[in-house]
Specification:
There is one protein chain. By secondary structure, the chain is mainly α. The protein has one domain. The chain is built from four helices and no strands. Helix 2 packs antiparallel against helix 3.
């Protein structure tokens, strides 16, 4: 259980600062949800667009892509599946 919790923490700590902020937690749960890919993208975009510019700058995009790669571990998660259901 402790190892799973540490792994989950690692997956969510997208900026590698040893702390989870609200956006990291929200993005993590969005990516892990069973929502459609479009819904996940829209929700994550809204959270990643920290300056509310309706665009992502390089740092915002980098944080989002880091989140996606960590959560998926390089695997494509099928539409309608969460990372916990996909092996």
């Amino acid at each position: 259980m402790v190892n799973n919790l540490l792994m989950f923490f690692y997956y969510l700590d997208f900026n590698n600062n040893g702390l989870l902020d609200v956006n990291e937690i929200l993005i993590g749960f969005i990516l892990l949800s069973k929502a459609s890919q479009k819904e996940k993208l829209e929700a994550a975009f809204t959270i990643c667009d920290t300056d509310n510019s309706m665009t992502l700058d390089m740092e915002e995009l980098k944080n989002y892509l880091r989140a996606v790669m960590r959560i998926s571990q390089g695997k494509v998660i099928p539409e309608g599946k969460s990372v916990f259901e996909f092996e």
